[in-house]
Design goal:
single chain, alpha/beta, TIM Barrel, Non-ribosomal Peptide Synthetase Peptidyl Carrier Protein, Chain A, eight-stranded parallel sheet, two-stranded antiparallel sheet, 12 helices, 39% helix, 13% strand, globular, tRNA binding
């Protein structure tokens, strides 16, 4: 197995040079800064996106991925829209909605509805999800990397249905290490009319293990004639974002899991690539207050009971990497009411940096 290119930050001082990056254009839309928030199922809902917007730095935000067939069924039966579209109609723009399925006609109908009724800025297609429920059961997500012609059909139908709203695609390098085909897939994506391509630098079989291969992401650029390439994978610091732009042939980057407990990461990354001082991490008290604001937004939408249950995983993200995080996670994983949540946060959320040994 090839060894993926690692991020070596030795000698890099990202605050000393404005990279003077050319504008990232998706269709006629300029994404500034060229830093995108990844769509993540179960996490990037309206509440999270509002927290990110509060800090700034993300040029394009995205919803959780939406099951196109499920959306279509709800629409036909005049049921409520999926929770994953919570807030989309009234939210600030630009905003991307990511959808997935393997049926071109269904995808096209849903895409058109998103454009006409929800006025979304971008319709993104998920060709990268490695989860078995999506791949093996639904033959969608990264499974479709095995069937480039079907990918082309889906993209073409969506481009036609959504025009003039741009359609983009997100892929992985391939299904497995012995079937890496991202260079060929990139050409299919472009020739089918997509306005941009995002590549996660792992194969589907890796899920999120190992390290993203930015060399292979960068190689894809030479196989594209006009649409931008957006790199994704392991961007967990402003320094790594800076290095991705400086050392690899990408037009934009997408930040994923690292931002879940650090929504201020986008602002830090935007400062780095502009040659400005990187804002410091918020204090632990400020981070706790950010989490509580996030909790309030979730409860407003889903009610106290469901909102508290949903917030457990977010609370764990906010504590990640801090002294005492395991202790906090143990307690917050069992909360069921607002009173219990606030008590656990008050008693166990780490708000003091331990003194040096």
């Amino acid at each position: 197995m090839d060894t993926p290119h690692q991020f070596d930050l030795t000698g890099i001082e990202p605050t000393t040079e404005d990279l003077k990056l050319p504008p990232l254009k998706i269709g006629d839309m300029v994404i500034d800064p060229p830093i995108l928030q990844a769509p993540m199922a179960g996490f990037t809902n309206y509440a999270f996106r509002q927290i990110v917007r509060g800090y700034g730095g993300a040029g394009l935000l995205a919803t959780e991925m939406v099951n196109a067939r499920g959306f279509h069924w709800l629409d036909e039966h005049e049921a409520e829209f999926p929770d994953r579209l919570w807030g989309v109609e009234d939210e600030a723009r630009p905003l991307a909605v990511q959808i997935w399925d393997n049926q071109p006609e269904v995808m096209a109908k849903v895409g058109r509805r998103l454009v006409e009724e929800f006025k979304v800025s971008v319709v993104d297609i998920n060709f990268g999800c490695p989860v078995k429920q999506v791949t093996e059961k639904a033959h969608s997500g990264s499974y479709l990397l095995r069937v480039p012609e079907r990918m082309g059909q889906i993209i073409s139908k969506l481009v036609e249905a959504c025009a003039p709203t741009p359609v983009t695609a997100k892929i992985r390098l391939g299904c497995s290490m012995d079937s890496i085909n991202a260079n060929d897939i990139a050409q299919v994506v472009e020739q089918s009319g997509a306005a941009a391509l995002t590549v996660h630098g792992r194969v589907a079989a890796q899920f999120f293990k190992g390290e993203a291969d930015w060399e292979r992401i960068s190689e894809i650029k030479s196989h594209l004639k006009k649409i931008p390439l957006i790199g994704n994978g392991d961007l967990d610091s402003a320094e790594k974002v800076y290095r991705a732009f400086r050392n690899f042939d990408v037009d934009g980057v997408m930040i994923a899991r690292a931002c879940l407990g650090r929504p201020w990461l986008f602002a830090q990354a935007a400062a780095a690539i502009a040659g400005k001082p990187i804002p410091p991490e918020p204090t632990l008290v400020e981070q706790r207050d950010c989490m509580l604001k996030h909790y309030d937004l979730v409860v407003q939408r889903f009610g106290e009971s469901k909102g508290t249950l949903l917030m457990r995983k977010f609370a764990c993200c906010y504590a990640q990497g801090k002294s005492g995080a395991r202790h906090f996670r143990k307690h917050v994983a069992n909360v069921a009411t607002p009173q219990e949540f606030y008590e656990v946060v008050e008693k166990h959320f780490p708000i003091e940096t331990p003194a040096p040994a």
